[in-house]
Amino acid sequence: MELLSVPRRGSSAREYVYEALKKNIILLHLKPGQSITEQEIAEKFSVSRTPVREAFIRLAQEGLLETFPQRGTVVSLIDLERVDEARFMRRTLEKAVLRLACEAFPSELAFELRSNLALQEVCLEEKNFLRLFELDEEFHRLIYRGCKKERIWDLICQINADFRRIRVLKLSSGIRVGEVVEQHRRIAGIIFDRDPGRVEAILDEHLPQHDPDFERLREEYPEYFRQRG
Predict the structure, then answer these.
(1) Is-contact 104 194, C-beta < 8 A?
(2) For residue range 8-66, what is the model confidence (pLDDT) as tens digits?
(3) Does residue 129 contact residue 172 with C-beta atoms inside 8 Å?
(4) Gap between the Cα atoms of 129 and 133, Å rounded
(5) Nearest to residue 107, comparing CAs of 72, 138, 132, 142?
(6) I want to staple 123 with a disulfide (CB 3.0 to 4.6 A). Which of 15, 109, 132, 170 is the partner?
(7) Fold assignment, 80-221
(8) Taking the domains of the chain in order of start, what are their residue ranges?
């Protein structure tokens, strides 16, 4: 099992294992349906089983892990109903946040947005789609931070794990990646131009009510998705 490493940064073993596992699940290094055990994770991160067990409990509460009597602990499958709920929440909140950003946005964060967009272009050219996903998330975080709503973004990230995973799957499959970067450029332009009149249209495009690519991904990777009725 190959896992992405995460900087320790002085955090407790419990927090470190939780953050590292969550990142590996979100970025699909731990794939939906994959079995994991406390022992192997403890060995990977050179910690005791206690912080691993605590991390498993937190991730299960967030819907990222499930435990079954015969199979043990597995990474949860992607649930498209939860994806739709998360997308609805993102669209609703982000329209309000973008309108706030059009009223006032700190110049230093505007500079960071421009730098972020430049890095997205580099990742697009290099086909570094996992790094592009991280820049995508940081792009939106910067907007929330600029409106003093960063804690709302943190809450969104806690409850939209399936939406994040399917976006990683979409980007890593190379589906409409250039369109995503172009939409980010236009979102930034709305903020720089202070033009709230364009918010509705761009977010309906960036976070559509129905994304046909998600159904396409479910057909291509049926083993990653929860099947319903």
Answers:
(1) no
(2) 776 788 899 999 999 999 999 999 999 999 999 999 999 999 999 999 999 999 999 99
(3) yes
(4) 6
(5) 142
(6) 132
(7) Four Helix Bundle (Hemerythrin (Met), subunit A) (1.20.120)
(8) 13-75, 80-221
